[in-house]
Amino acid sequence: MSSVFKALSDPTRRRVLQLLRAGPMSAGEIAARFEVSKPTMSAHFAVLREADLVHAEKAGKSVIYHLKLSVLEEALLGFVHSFGAGAEGSRAVPDDIPDKEPAT
Q: Which keywords does UniProt give here (predicted)?
């Protein structure tokens, strides 16, 4: 899960994921939306692949990227559940933490 959060920690990579929500795009189409060098974009793509957030598919000389939304959802749900939040979205509070400050 840490590789997912490493990938999400960068605004450029988050923007790539947002772009891919609309559908698959080539590496060139994605890179054209950013003012960074090709090696920098390649590094961003590598981090996203390592986190398994995208799937890369060769199409001739192009690489087409697909969003793996299920991986992102799973990581985010795991993160939420690590804080004790239930599927219903209820607020789980440990027994030793009072809901209110004691009256003085």
A: DNA-binding, Transcription, Transcription regulation
Identify residue 30 by its one-letter amino acid code: I
Task: Write out the H or E segment, with its range, that includes residue 26.
Answer: strand 25-26
Out of 27-31, 34-38, 46-50, 70-74, pick the least confident.
70-74
Q: How far apart are CA 83 and CA 94, in angstroms?
A: 10
The CATH T-level fold of domain 2-82 is Arc Repressor Mutant, subunit A (1.10.10)
Domain boundaries of the chain, sorted by first residue: 2-82
- Reading the block at residue 54, the tokens are 């995208």
* Amino acid sitting at position 20: L
Q: What is the pTM of this model?
A: 0.72
